[in-house]
Amino acid sequence: MIDKVPLPSWMAILILSTTLITPAWAEYADVVINKRAEQAGMRPVIFPHWFHRIRFTCNVCHNDEGFKMKVGANNITMAELVDGKFCGMCHNNENKIAWSLDRCDMCHSGLPGLSSGIQRGDPTRGPGYK
Amino acid sequence: MKQADFWILAPLVLGLGVIQVACVNTEPVTTVEKPSVVPAQTASVDDKWLPLAKDKLHDVDGLRDPGNPGFQLHQEPREELSKLPANKARPVINAFGGSPGLMVSKADNLVDWVQAITSGAIRPRRNIATGTGIEVEPPVMDMDILLNPNGSMPPVRFPHRAHTMWLACANCHPAIFIPQKGANPIRMYKILEGEQCGICHSAVAFSLTECSRCHSVQRIPSSLVNPSANKGGGIP
């Protein structure tokens, strides 16, 4: 049976899937944050820059109190978020800027096993990036 | 996953990714399959932002967990980004000679974020009050700095205005750039490695492939500045 198929079956699947499936992916500048989350039994965090920069300028998050502009350079724990730091500046019950920290799934939305990093930049970075 | 499975699946997934990326990026927009949720009148614009994967089969880079209940609540990029000023096609500078062409960068959320603010399409908050320590709005400053590289690349105009609409002075000064003209040896290879301008560009701000957006200043032929420089009859 299998040798009657003119193409290897994986090739057939490949061709089929590329014609039938609408591809989907992360948006430019989405950040995966997985320094601690998965070790602590949670899904990795996916942070969408595009969504937040429509609403806030960069300095609101990237300042002395907030996020350093380098993936992995921030030691984010839930205790600090509850304290009103990092995402907790806005995602809290007090100043009503955004929904609060009890909606774990909204932030912890990545597949297990992802490594931290920024997504979909043009591959122009030379050697030694990060 | 068993190791054998991995070696069968890996090339498959990789091939899939490569082919799909190739299809989407190179073919005319109309050949991309339309997601059924897109209303007809905006479809041609919307095709440019691929949907977030709502299940495993569709996910090219395997980022989001479809089993996650919060997932379906995430907003589709195209719903908001398609309303913002689109990034323009810009001349590509061909470093190896040959004819320059026009190209729209594939990155940068396909949005011109400078236009988005100056046109009033978005009004991002510049501060958040109530005990966060970010009560002050950073100033916007209009000062262009000309960075003139050696060699044949057109000089770079660094616009403080476009940057201070988004950033505070302290995001750059003094950690990344000493605030003094000429005090920073800025080099393209460092930028490409993700330092200096490359900290933001090609990560969150517009992509480094848009050479002419930075290298935007026409070099004035030396013969015009100083007519005697052209005495040898060389190319102006």
User: Biggest interface, which chains?
Assistant: A-B, 65 and 78 residues
Instruction: Estimate the global geometry of chain B from the Cα principal axes.
Output: globular
Q: How big is the Rg of chain B?
A: 23 Å
Mean pLDDT of chain A: 81
| Biggest sheet details of chain B | 2 strands, antiparallel
Key structural traits:
heterodimer, A: 130 residues, alpha+beta, Cytochrome C3, 5 helices, 25% helix, 8% strand, B: 236 residues, mainly alpha, two-stranded antiparallel sheet, 8 helices, 4 strands, disordered N terminus, disordered C terminus
Q: What does this protein look like?
A:
The complex is a heterodimer of chains A (130) and B (236). Chain A has 130 residues and is α+β, with helices and mostly antiparallel strands. Chain A has one domain (24-120): Alpha-Beta Complex (Cytochrome C3). Helix content of chain A is 25%, strand content 8%. Chain A has a three-stranded antiparallel β-sheet. The longest helix of chain A is centred in the first third of the chain and has 12 residues, at 9-20. Chain A starts with 8 loop residues before the first helix and ends in a 12-residue tail after the last strand. Residues 126-130 of chain A have low confidence and may be disordered. Helices cover 24% and strands 5% of the residues of chain B. Chain B has helices at residues 3-26, 43-46, 77-81, 113-118, 160-164, 188-192, 211-214, 222-225; strands spanning 90-91, 102-103, 144-147, 156-159. A two-stranded antiparallel sheet of chain B has the order 1-2. A two-stranded antiparallel ribbon of chain B has the order 3-4. Residues 1-46 and 227-236 of chain B have low confidence and may be disordered. Classes of the chains: A alpha+beta (130), B mainly alpha (236). At the A-B interface, helix 1, helix 2, helix 3 and helix 5 of A face helix 1 and helix 3 of B.
